[in-house]
Structures are given as C-alpha cells and as structure tokens.
Amino acid sequence: MLYSEKVLDHFSNPRNVGEIEDADGIGEIGNAKCGDIMKMYLKIDDNTITDVKFKTFGCGAAVATSSMATELIKGKSIDDALKLTNQAVVEALDGLPAVKIHCSVLAEQAVRAALSDYYTRQGIDPVPIVGEIKEPEE
User: For labelling, which of 15, 44, 82, 130 has a CA lying 20 to 30 Å from the CA of 106?
Assistant: First the structure.
C-alpha cells in the first residue's frame, strides 16, 4: 500500500490538531468496522469558518484525511464547507489506496456532523441544509 507524499506529510505533520473550547459546532463520526473515530470542532463567525480543529483516533490515512479536510474548509463560508466531498479530500491528498477511501468519507461526514451541530445550536433544523448524517460504511 503506497501513500502519496501529501498523505505522509499530513500524517507526520497534521494541521489543526486539538479542540476548540468554545466551539460553535462539534461533530463526531466513527466507523465501527475499522475503529476510526474523528471529532471536528468549528468556530464560525458571520457564516465563515474562522477556525477548525480535529482529533482523530485511527490509522495514518484517517489522520491525513482529517488534516486535509480542515485545511480545505478553514476560512471558507459554510456553503463552501458543505460542498466538501470525500473525492475533493482524496484529490487534495494526491490519491488514497482503495482500501482507505472510507477515511475520506469519514472526514467529509465529520465536517457535516459539526455543521449539523452548529445549526442545531442555532435552533435551525440542520437536515434540509446539511442532509442526514449517517454512520459511514466500509
């Protein structure tokens, strides 16, 4: 299984690791089959994601996809963050081995779960905006 230089870089030097004490949205997604768990924290100001942190328990690809996902949405509008796809994460990392694609799906779902939590805290039903948050499958 070969990883791209970008995957190895994001695994060795993950960006935006940690948690945000007063986060505006927190999302946690886990995959029972592989044991990966991702938790995303968002700070949102005036419809813009001003800060994002993550904690991931899992393999190198899970850490790398979480790191890249945070890089792709930081400083972006909520609308742009909602357009984040697992495919965009994979492409930004110059590809992932097929058996690790599910990690990029987890990263996408963790972002969506955090945005869903943000809307719920605002008293807004998140489902029409964010969609259903489902536990990813292998």
Answer: 44
Cα angle 50, 65, 110; round to 5:
60
Residue type, 113: A
Q: Is 67 helix (H, G, I), strand (E, B) or coil?
A: helix
Per the domain annotation, does 137 fall within a domain?
Answer: no
CATH of the domain at 73: 3.90.1010.10
Residue carrying the six token digits 């089959």: 33
Q: pLDDT digits over 41-79, tens only?
A: 999 999 999 999 999 999 999 999 999 999 999 999 999
What positions carry a catalytic annotation?
34, 103
User: Cα(121)–Cα(73) distance, rounded to whole angstroms?
Assistant: 20
| Structural domain span for residue 51 | 5-123
